[in-house]
Amino acid sequence: MTASGSSADALLEQQTRRESNARTYPRSLPLAIERAEGAIVEDVDGNEYIDCLAGAGTLALGHNHPAIVERLEELFERDRAMHTLDLTTPIKERFVDRLLESLPDEFAESAKVQFCSPAGTDAVEAAMKLVKTATGNRSMVAFQGAYHGMTRGALELMGDTAPREPIAGHVSDVHHAPYPYAYRCPFGLGGGDCWQTSAEYVERTLSNPDSGIVDPAGMILEPVQGEGGVVPAPDEWLRAMRRITREHDIPLIVDEIQTGLGRTGELYAVEHADVVPDVLTLSKAIGGGLPVSVVVYDESLDIWEPGAHAGTFRGNQLGMAAGAATIEYVLEHDLETHAAAMGERLQAHLEETAGTFEAVGDVRGRGLMVGMELVDPDGETDSLGRYPADGNLASAVQTAAFERGLIVETGGRHGSVVRLLPPLSISPSQIDDVGDIVYESVRSAHSRGRDRAETRA
Questions:
Q1: Which residue ranges does the record annotate as region Disordered (predicted)?
Q2: What is residue 146's DSSP assignment?
Q3: Distance CA 360, CA 415 (A)
Q4: With contact defined as beta carbons under 8 Å apart, do 296 and 267 qualify?
Q5: Which tens digits make up the pLDDT trace of 6-19?
C-alpha cells in the first residue's frame, strides 16, 4: 500500500511490520503526519494536534517556519553545495558567526567549534574524547538521572541503568553523583538543603584520596535534566559545580543539547547562573529542525591533531543554513523572553491542575521546558511526604491528551513526568488551549484509574 490515500491506521500498521522493535514514539503517539505548520500538525485523516513535543525540542520555531523555508529555497535556487565534510562555505561561516553571537561574550571570545556527526549524542562523544585527550585522564563525573544520548560512551553517562544493560560487561569509568532533584531529594532533604548537600557530597568526594575515583577527565551535567524528568538545577548548585571543577582542574562540560537557544528563557541555560563552562554540547534547536551537532569549547583544550575527530555528515549545509536562520530569528525577535513568559503562563495552568488533583505531585521547569509529575495518592509517602511516582497515570494522561488533540511526552524517574516542549514561537492562546487540554486529560485519566481501582476492589 502506498502512502497516497492511506489512513493513519494503515500507515501505522505498515510501520509496525517494517520498522525495528526499538521504535518508541509511535507506541504512545499513534500518529501518521501529513502536514505541519508552526505548533500545529495534521495527520493523514485530517486530525489536528498542538505539538508540545516539537521534535524533542528541536523545532524552536515550529514546523516550516518561513524564515527557514526561505533560506533553504535560496540554497537550492543558487545551486549551493549540500554536503562539504569540513570544507568551509559562506553558509558555514554564516552559521558559525551566528552561533558565536548567540553565546555569552566571555565564552565566545576564546571559543573553538568542532562540528560532529549530526546527532546530539555525537557531540557528547566528541566532548568526552576532547577532555580525555586534553587532560590525559580517563574517568568522568556524571549525575544520577542524566541523559546524554544513546551511543556507547554517552550511555555510560546515563543515570537510568536499563538502557545500559547491553553494555553491562564493559568496565565503566563514569561515577554518578546525586543530582539536586528537590522534589525527590536523593538525600531525603527538603528545600535548599538538597542542593547544598549535593554540592558538598561532590566536593568531599573529589577531595577524598580514598574515594576510589581517579582524577577525572571531566564533569558533565545538564542545567535542566530533560529526559530525567524536567529537573532544573538551582543556580547556586551550578555555580558550586563551576567553582569545584575549577579548584580541581576538571573541565566542566555542560550539555545544552535540549536547553540551548532560548528554551529555558535565556539563550543558554547556564546564563541563569552566570556560569561559563569549559565545553558546551549543542544540537537540536541550533539546526533549525535539521541535523547539526557541535562542541564549543575553550581554546586551551584544543590540542587535537588534524583528523583526531571527524564524522561524514559534519558538513551538512542544509542544517547550517536552517540553523543560521533560526539563530538569527531567535536573536532578532527576543524569543528567549517570549519563551520565559509563555513558560510562566503554562506553569500557571498546570499549577491550577495540581491544585485540583492530588495526583499531580509537582509542576516544574524553566521557560518552555515544563514537567508535571504524576503520583499515586493512595500509596505510602516517603520521608518528605511525597506520594510514589505513578508512571501508569502519566501514560494515561499522555493518551488522554492525544485523544484531545495534544502531543506530549513522558519521562523522568519511573516514567511519571508529563513533559511539554512546545516551539518557542507558540502563542498565548495556544498555551491556554494546552493548559485546558492537560486539565481535562488529568481529570479523565484520574477518574478512569479510580474506576478501575473500584472495580478491582
A1: 1-24
A2: -
A3: 14
A4: no
A5: 688 999 999 999 99
* Pairing assessment for the beta strands 139-143 and 216-221 based on DSSP bridges: parallel
List the grid coordinates of 304.
587535537
Q: What's the CA gap between 398 and 385, in Å, rounded? A: 26
DSSP per residue, 169-234: TSPP-EEEEPP--STT-TTS--TTHHHHHHHHHHHHHHH-TTSSPPPEEEEEE-SEETTTTSEEPP
263 within 8 A of 270, measured Cβ to Cβ: no
> Whose CA is closest to 424, among 361, 350, 341?
341
Contact 343, 370 (CB under 8 A): yes
User: Which three three-digit cell numbers place residue 424?
Assistant: 518557542
Pull the grid cell for residue 370.
515544563
Rg of the Cα trace of the chain?
22
Spatial separation of the C-alpha atoms in residues 128 and 140, rounded to whole Å? 8
| pLDDT for 192 | 82
pLDDT of 118 higher than 90: no
Q: Which has the closest alpha carbon to 430: 336, 298, 325, 342?
A: 342
Domains and CATH numbers, the chain: 8-64+335-456 (3.90.1150.10), 68-332 (3.40.640.10)
Distance between CA atoms of residues 453 and 437, nearest Å: 24
Average pLDDT over residues 244-258: 98
* DSSP 3-state of 252: strand
C-alpha cell at 105: 561574550
Cα distance between residue 247 and residue 241, in whole Å: 10
pLDDT of residue 3: 45
pLDDT in tens, 319-350: 999 999 999 999 999 999 999 999 999 999 99
φ/ψ region of 124 (left if φ > 0, alpha if ψ in -120 to 50, else beta) reads alpha
Distance (Å, whole) CA 137 – CA 215: 6
Give strand pairing partners of 362: 373
List residues bridging with 205 in a β-sheet: none
Q: Determine the Cα–Cα distance for residues 327 and 319; give it in Å rounded to an integer.
A: 12
Backbone angles phi, psi at 435, to 5 degrees: -60, -40
Q: Give the residue-averaged pLDDT of 30-42.
A: 96
Cell of 49: 494536534
Is 0.90 surpassed by the pTM of this model? yes
